[in-house]
UniProtKB/TrEMBL annotation, chains A, B:
InterPro entries documented for this protein: EvaA-like, EvaA-like_sf
An example molecular function term from Gene Ontology annotations: lyase activity
Residues annotated as domain dTDP-4-dehydro-6-deoxy-alpha-D-glucopyranose 2,3-dehydratase: 39-240, 293-505
The name this protein goes by in its record: NDP-hexose 2,3-dehydratase
Organism: Streptomyces sp. MJ635-86F5
Length: 512, 512
């Protein structure tokens, strides 16, 4: 074939850089870092917390500065016309028990950037993470991506400080792009919102600003076992990292012992089988219960058969909802609330502000049921309708449950408890492979916590099929983490909750 | 790694069936078929035409049966509430010369199925194509997919006959799925419309109904060189075929001579270099000017930087448009028209009907500028905004031009002629690698013809860069046909015009 070339191949580059997944896997296998030792993280994080005294208080709506309810529509808007608005939405679905409902929804048409800067130290990729305060965060300070910027941020609508490291993500060629994909945000709370999820490798020297630190993917994996430390924006970006399978014996930092995260109550042996099956799913040539084409065909059919119609309606006219001086909520108390807070802090781009937030009704449960099938890990994904998705359904965890939340699920049970919820909640501790509480985005949601779980079911050869069978109910499919990593390279396949669990699976890929 | 398996791998299958692209490529290389010889196609097609006498006439709107202008909105609607409606749209864009415009648009929320049934005869995949009449088609009868069904079709809203072969595409497991993806339709004429594009291989015997025939991909490739024979629905499905590179010497029908389609005026040698570079782009391990990650990152940036807001408005109130007894059109004559026709035919599911159609203002031009770079074919794609896309931009041909059409292109020139149009129109005949006139979907568009072209520029090593340089202007990128085939496995990357050209590239892959 070389005969047809009229010139040496000097202009072309490989379509796929095979070294990137391997380098990310090596970073996942490194549970200690070159720059900040894992044992020193807590002290560093505490210092960042101390360095930024701040105060978040609930306030009535009439103390919001720049925000008001629009005279005609009753929508909650900012006088600049930017940031976001809280409007009403009427959702009609063709499937499921509840045919239609009304709800408030956040509209923020612009695309933000969630970007993590990466750099190799001693042959191991480290990620530049930020200790960042968000008013809705549990613990207020959480570990965030390097850059977390709405377009308003970087076009200076709020006249704040520059966003640090932004040019790595907005100037093509400033670094080497490892991942860059538009991903959806919460479809239950946002209308058609998506953000750019980016990982960019710096090829020059990077000066580390005070609230920033370099961590390996393995170190972040350890922190993902702690409650409310790694924020949602970091988790969704980490989900997009194209991680390969690397055996735990390949430790790129030989002087540092690999620390196994202790699974919640599980015996080491079961956890070892789980992580080996997880790595197997990412090895080249490993099969799956359904081929990629079959999985995509099922997804296409799910997306096609759903008729979801949404209509924006004035917040003022939202049936069943009423507005009090400090809250917009349902008369029956179900669902979430719209509230307002004031914030005083030094570490944000501006030093003090007020803003609305969405406050859910209680702790959510987000869980993948997982199985080893022929030694390869599979997770049970659910094709889920939410009113705010750009296109009818996205793939969600097996269980995605927020008390009182409006759902349209073909398999929803009469009591409003989704399939598999009680099974997950009742799982024996030795079945739980991962468990931690995480917050959703603290810039829009107030104390929106969920318990994230990976729970293993079944025996490997399918003989004892158990309560989570190989033969899936309608709307559900077994897929491998390797298949999810392929899908998350494109937008609107995996929802944000599934991406948090995929980020955990990515980070666990390095565990022994 | 086998030690971790507790059971033989009986449940798993390969994620990717590597034989499918190869089998499709063999079909593309077969320019004659086992069932219907290429030389007999014209006679068969003429017989189908004779078998179905029909008549399409323009009528005034008040002769439409079941259709009327809604009393309040002026929208053109069907009394069943199904099929489609013609409404008004206000489009606002942040980029480009024209900041906003009003236009009529077709709204048809439901997802249709465009499906081609495949089956192997003597080791070669053949595709079951249908001679189907559509009222807007030039020549009326064109070659269509096996199934071309709106949801109204198969739920029998119009009380017509059964859709033949439909269960292969709606019943999982009825055949082997080779491709299944939601793809957008014309964003300038449809609001958020997408169809399922499917190729399914039959594993059982198939009875061939009178209007149907089995053709190889190579035979269809020959027909794609004729004007107005292969309809749009067939072309978009063929674009989704995951074709591999197979050298022309591998002819799966050795008794049949391979017929080279004569390029329009080009010498055989240049055409041979072109097809070899085309095949090279699909070989495993072949590089590209931009890696897949870089290409996706550029696309993500293009999609993110565009602010496109659309608002549905009543057709009655559309500024600049007026309604006459037989047409809705712009007062200045620019853009397209909404008209009505009556149809009498025996070969449709129902025997006579009336319906509205969109009629564009003239012949369009859809062209890829192509270059051989280091012996690998590249095409210049354009990130194009259209008001009806689900998400701001999709990848379009280098030139996509319909006279008077509303466009929002960052690079649009003052005269309203897009970049590269005059270059394409002025190209010397020996630069033209493909040229044919095709119609857009005849069920919605009346005589919507475009000249589709592949025109080669530049020399291979980039020394003489010429008018279509290696360094792309903003909004454009060089991509290989192999990269486009990867992208078209997912929805909303390639627009329908680019998919027609990709279908031609797929079919040409078998040419010697």
């Amino acid at each position: 074939m070389t005969g047809i070339r009229s010139a040496p191949p000097v202009l072309l580059r490989p379509r796929v850089d095979g070294s990137v997944p391997e380098r990310l896997a090596r970073s996942a296998a490194a549970t200690d870092g070159i720059v900040l030792r894992t044992e020193d993280f807590a002290a560093w994080f505490a210092r960042r917390r101390d360095a930024h005294p701040f105060r978040v208080e609930r306030i009535p709506f009439d103390r919001l500065e720049g925000w008001s309810f629009h005279e005609r529509t009753g929508d909650l808007v900012h006088r600049s016309g930017r940031f976001f608005t809280v409007e009403g939405l009427h959702v009609t679905v063709d499937e499921g028990r509840r045919g239609d409902w009304h709800q408030p929804i956040i509209r923020q048409a612009e695309v933000g950037i969630l970007g993590i800067l990466a750099k190799e130290f001693h042959g191991v990729l480290h990620l530049l993470m930020q200790a960042k305060m968000e008013p809705g965060n549990v613990n207020l300070l959480q570990l965030s991506p390097t850059v977390q910027a709405t377009r308003s941020n970087y076009t200076k609508v709020h006249r704040g400080a520059d966003v640090k490291y932004l040019d790595y993500f907005t100037r093509p060629g400033r670094g080497r792009v490892l991942a860059d994909v538009l991903q959806s945000e919460h479809g239950a709370w946002f209308l058609h919102k998506s953000n750019r999820n980016m990982i960019v490798e710096a090829l020059d020297d990077v000066t580390v600003a005070p609230d920033f630190c370099w961590l390996t993917l393995g170190q972040i994996g350890l922190l993902l076992h702690q409650d409310n430390v790694v924020n949602m924006d970091a988790r969704t970006v980490l989900a997009c990292a194209p991680v390969a399978a690397v055996p735990p014996s390949v430790s790129p930092v030989p002087s540092v012992p690999l620390v196994s995260p202790e699974p919640a109550g599980g015996p080491g042996d079961a956890f070892g089988l789980f992580t080996r099956a997880l790595r197997r799913s990412r090895e080249p040539g490993t099969g799956a219960l359904h081929s990629d084409t079959e999985l995509l065909s099922w997804f296409t059919a799910e997306r096609s058969r759903q008729d979801v119609a949404v209509r924006r309606v004035p917040l003022r006219e939202l049936p069943g909802w009423h507005r009090a001086p400090d809250v917009v909520e349902r008369a029956d108390g179900r669902g979430f609330r719209v509230v307002a807070v004031s914030v005083a802090a030094a570490s944000r781009e501006v030093s003090a502000w007020t803003q609305p937030l969405i406050e859910p009704n209680g702790m959510g449960v987000m869980a993948f049921a997982v199985r080893r099938i022929d030694g390869v890990l599979h997770v049970l994904v659910h094709a889920r309708v939410e009113g705010g998705y750009l296109d009818t359904v996205e793939l969600a965890p097996t269980v995605q449950y927020v008390p009182g939340e409006f759902v349209a699920a073909a398999g929803e049970e009469p009591a409003g408890r989704p399939p598999f919820l009680d099974l997950i909640l009742a799982a024996a501790p030795d079945r739980v492979r991962y468990e931690a509480v995480h917050s959703e985005e603290g810039g829009r949601f107030l104390a929106a916590q969920s318990r994230y779980l990976l729970v293993e079911f079944g025996d490997e050869d399918g003989d004892d099929d158990g309560p989570v069978p190989l033969q899936e109910p309608p709307g559900y499919r077994w897929a491998t983490p390797g298949q999810l990593s392929s899908l998350v390279g494109h937008g609107h396949y995996l929802n944000v909750q599934a991406r948090t669990l995929l980020a955990c699976l990515n980070a666990l890929a390095g565990a022994p």
